[in-house]
From TrEMBL, chain A:
Name of the protein this chain belongs to: Branched-chain amino acid ABC transporter permease
GO MF annotation terms: branched-chain amino acid transmembrane transporter activity
Keyword flag Acetylation: no
Pfam families (UniProt xref): BPD_transp_2 (PF02653)
Residue ranges of the TM segments: 29-51, 63-81, 87-104, 111-133, 163-181, 212-231, 243-267, 287-308
Alphabetical keyword list: Cell membrane, Membrane, Transmembrane, Transmembrane helix
CDD domains, per the entry: TM_PBP1_LivM_like (cd06581)
Organism: Vineibacter terrae
Taxonomic path: Bacteria, Pseudomonadati, Pseudomonadota, Alphaproteobacteria, Hyphomicrobiales
Chief place of localization: membrane
GO CC, alphabetical: plasma membrane
Membrane topology: Multi-pass membrane protein
Alphabetized InterPro entries for the sequence: ABC_transp_permease, LivM-like
Compartments reported by the entry: Cell membrane
Automatic annotation (TrEMBL), chain B:
Presence of keyword Transport: yes
Sorted UniProt keywords: Amino-acid transport, ATP-binding, Nucleotide-binding, Transport
ABC transporter domain segment(s): 5-240
UniProt keyword Nucleotide-binding, yes or no: yes
Gene Ontology MF terms: ATP binding; ATP hydrolysis activity; branched-chain amino acid transmembrane transporter activity
Any GO BP annotation: L-amino acid transport
Family annotation (SUPFAM superfamilies): P-loop containing nucleoside triphosphate hydrolases
Stated family: Belongs to the ABC transporter superfamily.
Protein name: ABC transporter ATP-binding protein
From TrEMBL, chain C:
GO biological process: amino acid transport
Stored Pfam families: BPD_transp_2
Nucleotide-binding listed as a keyword: no
Keywords attached to this entry: Amino-acid transport, Cell membrane, Membrane, Transmembrane, Transmembrane helix, Transport
Protein name as annotated: Branched-chain amino acid ABC transporter permease
Membrane topology label: Multi-pass membrane protein
Cross-referenced InterPro entries: ABC_transp_permease (IPR001851), BCAA_transport_permease (IPR052157)
CDD domains reported in the protein's UniProt record: TM_PBP1_LivH_like
Any one Gene Ontology cellular component term annotated for this protein: plasma membrane
Transmembrane stretches, start-end: 6-26, 58-78, 90-114, 134-158, 179-201, 221-244, 251-276
Cell location: Cell membrane
Organism of origin: Vineibacter terrae
Family indicated by similarity: Belongs to the binding-protein-dependent transport system permease family. LivHM subfamily.
Length: 319, 243, 284
């Protein structure tokens, strides 16, 4: 269904998306929510590559998310690097870390892979919390406004109204990338390794190499989200490792259904809209988020799209 | 004569593929019924469906009755409790458990009416080899010994009808003959047995009735004595199987 | 630094690690289920025991069994919900589901018990023993002896009884177990209840060492997972050894190098082991 969307229609939808905050009244809180949704959705797309296409559960993507945030804030605060430079640094740092973690976990699978990635995130948090080089428990404060210019034209700013165009652009670029990835050789190999490892091996696909490649590919996506998040909050700290972001990523991916291009975006939007406009307090929101995550997988393991399939089948059989 | 086991209209689907297509099977009390057919004819799928068991997720339709009692819809452990006991093809015992532990996992029923109870002594009389190996783990046993444990385990459950899926797979011909002869001995003492076999000639020697399966359907069902006398059937259905 | 004292500290720490990990080890071995709510269950058990002492006024020795019982019941409920996924051995979804459960437990505990740190005091913690320069509390003794006893009994049950054979058979091949007349679903419930009760016992004995917080979750018990993987998935003896080994390591590393980075160091040890032996130390 998604695959048959024509390019002009996709462009039109993307352009429409850009005007969502303006059309919704243009209040700062709306811009903030939209920017946050875009950032967190991009973060989720990083984990989505692993969960949807490799079929493994990476619990370590908060590391890449935080890497992006720390790279941006440290280089901008200490060395005054501009947005392009910090973004490049975020990508490089995430790729390096992903290579290390990917190589170490190369031979582990299923729950051992998840456990190790989770533990890596806990340890990374401990390091960030204790190492004064990374700001320790206070984190890094006073991240300057984001400056991104190209050929004299550009954006700069710290308010959500200024950051929205960048968040939107980042989201669209991510969607395009994921769309390409799904059709790429790597994307199809990953699916094959997940669905039928024997066949994949028989066809000459090196499962370990594919897994490593997808892992390393996914890291900069979450890192770029963290990069923009640093500018949005003007502050980065060990709380970027918190399980909130992890649970949010996973929920966003599974709520609509895995392997759907727009799934994580819609999922993130639902969660952030609930937390921004229908919040029942921080702990209450936690209960909602956790309960939604568990309930979806327990009741409709394919996500809400599975419900749609059931309904469609009922309609067809009754017609 | 009453039928111990009656399966009516068994159909098994895997995804879109029909593996077994509306098969009827009856095992009369105290008889041995054989089921032969080429690889992929649906023999194992059928016998597993009768036991309500599978390693995959097939969709099964049809009725299964054990001494008139409805079995369909029951999970496999409930069917085993009621005396419909399957020895699956291939791995039939736990490799990490000793022979005694494997056999002791089974709780013999309190009420053995209409069923055939086997004490541990009976088992060790049938298979003296197992008495020597009782403390060994499953993975230390030879293929033949494993099959003996698998069958013994089923006998400990006091079967009303025993379902045996390719017990000869991977065994030397002498062992196959020994095992099947032992099974025939139990049938002569009243046990009802449904045997699925690839080894058609050995099966024909021992069973009372034979079903031939081809692509999920029964293509012939006759008394074994009639089949023996009919060289055309042997030629047509068995020649290629035993070659 | 007194080396003997550090060895004692290591033994005490290690027995705590092993005790908190044991339920999980059995669960992983039997059901291949990774319970990411393990840390939140530990937190909940500690708070339930604390609340029983504060609100019901019962003593520590009544509060801990009560919390073990409550967690056991919670285990029945949680496993009941997960039954379908466990029977399908849909491990990926299960991991995420337990993560969701953990988040719900954490949010609920914060709502019910508040966000402040609390003191979950054990009378045994105050009774200390001094032998020359050496020092330990009766709580330490009870934890160490209790852990050894529990592991001993568990080993006997798993390896010498029909119940143990039942658990091991389901661990090896749940489908085949059905043919042996075994209801795998019941075994899974039993194992999950054991995991919840065991972590509650672990919390009862270990949590009084430091203030308890509703937000302490998996991070609090992260080292138990090192124990579980290092010891070899599902190996009871392996977990005990790994627990003590890790206890020694953290005690000595904390005393000699840096207390702030002990978790990171323990994790590095684990990574090294995993690179060399992906199945853990006890893997065949």
């Amino acid at each position: 269904m998604m695959a048959r969307l024509s390019a002009p229609l996709a462009l039109a939808l993307a352009a429409l998306a850009y005007f969502i905050p303006a059309v919704s009244g243009g209040a700062p809180v709306v811009y903030a929510a939209c920017t946050t949704i875009a950032i967190l959705a991009v973060m989720a797309y990083g984990a989505d590559l692993i969960l949807s296409y490799l079929g493994e559960v990476s619990l370590g993507h908060t590391i890449f998310w935080a890497t992006g945030g720390y790279a941006a804030s440290m280089l901008a605060v200490n060395y005054g690097w501009n947005g392009w430079a910090t973004a490049a640094a975020a990508i490089v740092a995430a790729v390096v870390l992903a290579c290390v973690l990917g190589l170490v976990t190369l031979r582990t699978r299923e729950f051992v892979f998840s456990l190790v990635t989770y533990a890596a995130a806990v340890v990374a948090m401990e390091v960030a919390f204790n190492w004064s080089f990374l700001g320790g428990s206070d984190g890094i404060v006073g991240v300057p406004p984001l400056v991104l210019t190209i050929f004299g034209w550009g954006v700069s700013g710290a308010a959500n109204t200024d950051l929205w165009p960048i968040a939107w652009l980042l989201l669209m670029a991510t969607l395009l990338f994921i769309h390409r990835f799904r059709r790429s050789r790597l994307g199809t190999s990953a699916l094959m390794v997940q669905m039928n490892p024997d066949l994949a091996t028989a066809l000459g696909v090196d499962a370990r190499r594919v897994r490593l490649a997808v892992f390393v590919t996914s890291a900069p996506i979450s890192a770029l989200a963290g990069w923009l998040y640093a500018y949005q909050r003007a502050y980065v700290g060990p709380d970027m490792f918190e399980s909130y972001f992890l649970v949010l990523m996973l929920t966003a991916i599974v709520i609509i259904g895995r392997r759907l291009l727009l799934g994580p975006l819609i999922g993130t939007a639902l969660i952030i809209v609930q937390q921004t406009f229908f919040s029942i307090g921080g702990d209450g929101d936690k209960i909602i988020l956790g309960a939604v995550l568990a309930a979806i997988l327990l009741l409709w393991p394919k996500g809400l799209i599975g419900l749609w399939d059931v309904a469609a089948r009922r309609l067809r059989s009754s017609a | 004569m009453t039928d111990s086991l009656e399966a009516i209209g068994i159909t098994v689907r895997y995804g879109g593929n029909v593996a077994v297509d509306g098969i009827d099977v009856a095992v009369p009390a105290g008889r041995m019924v054989g089921m032969v057919g080429a690889n992929g004819a649906g023999k194992s799928t059928l016998i597993n469906a009768i036991a309500g068991w599978s390693r995959g997720t097939p969709v099964v339709r049809g009725e299964v009755r054990l001494a008139g009692q409805k079995m369909d819809g029951l999970p496999p452990h409930r069917r085993a409790e009621r005396g419909l006991v399957l020895v699956p093809e291939g791995k039939g015992i736990f490799a990490e458990l000793t022979v005694m532990e494997n056999l002791a996992l089974v709780r013999p029923p309190a009420d053995t009416r209409g069923r055939h109870a086997f004490s541990m002594d009976d088992i060790f009389t049938l298979f003296p080899r197992l008495a020597e190996r009782r403390g060994h783990k499953g993975r230390m046993l030879s293929g033949g010994e494993r099959q003996m444990v698998a069958v013994s385990r089923a006998l400990r459950a006091a079967p009303a009808v025993l379902l045996l899926d390719e017990p000869s797979a991977g065994l030397a011909p002498r062992l196959v003959h020994e095992l099947l002869t032992t099974m025939r001995g139990l049938v002569d003492r009243g046990l009802s047995l449904l045997l699925v076999e690839q080894n058609a000639r050995a099966t024909l020697e021992l069973v009372d009735e034979l079903y031939l399966l081809e692509r999920g359907k029964v293509v012939a069902r006759e008394a074994a004595s009639d089949m023996k006398d009919d060289p055309r059937i042997l030629e047509a259905y068995l020649g290629n199987l035993t070659a | 630094m007194n080396l003997t004292q550090q060895v004692i500290n290591g033994l005490v720490l290690g027995s705590g690690y092993a005790l908190v990990a044991i339920g999980w080890t059995v669960l992983l071995g039997a059901a291949r289920l990774v319970n990411f709510a393990h840390g939140q269950l530990y937190m909940l058990a500690a708070f339930l025991a604390w609340a029983a002492m504060q609100k019901l006024g019962v003593s520590y020795f009544v509060a801990v069994p009560l919390s073990v019982l409550a967690l056991g019941l919670l285990g029945v409920a949680l496993q009941g919900m997960m039954q379908r996924l466990v029977m399908q051995q849909n491990l990926t979804s299960l991991m995420i589901v337990t993560l969701g459960f953990g988040y719900v437990i954490q949010g609920s505990a914060a709502r019910i018990f508040g966000g402040d740190p609390q003191t979950f005091a054990s009378p045994l913690e105050k009774a200390s023993v001094h032998l020359g320069e050496l020092w330990f509390t009766w709580q330490d003794v009870v934890t160490l002896v209790g852990t050894l006893l529990l592991f001993g009994v568990l080993w006997l049950v798993l390896n010498r009884t029909r119940l143990g054979a039942l658990v091991r058979s389901v661990a090896e091949d749940p489908k085949l177990a059905q043919l042996f007349g075994i209801n795998a679903a019941q075994v899974y419930i039993g194992v999950f209840v054991f995991e919840c009760a065991a972590v509650a016992l672990g919390a009862g004995l270990v949590a009084p060492r430091s203030p308890i917080l509703a937000s302490m979750g998996f991070d609090e018990v992260i080292l138990t997972f090192v124990v579980v993987v290092l010891g070899g998935i599902g190996s009871v003896g392996g977990s005990l050894l790994a627990g003590f080994g890790l206890g020694m390591f953290t005690a000595l590393f904390g005393a000699l190098v840096s207390p702030a980075y002990t978790t990171a160091a323990a994790f590095l040890v684990l990574l090294t082991v995993l690179v060399v032996r992906p199945g853990g130390l006890a893997a065949r």
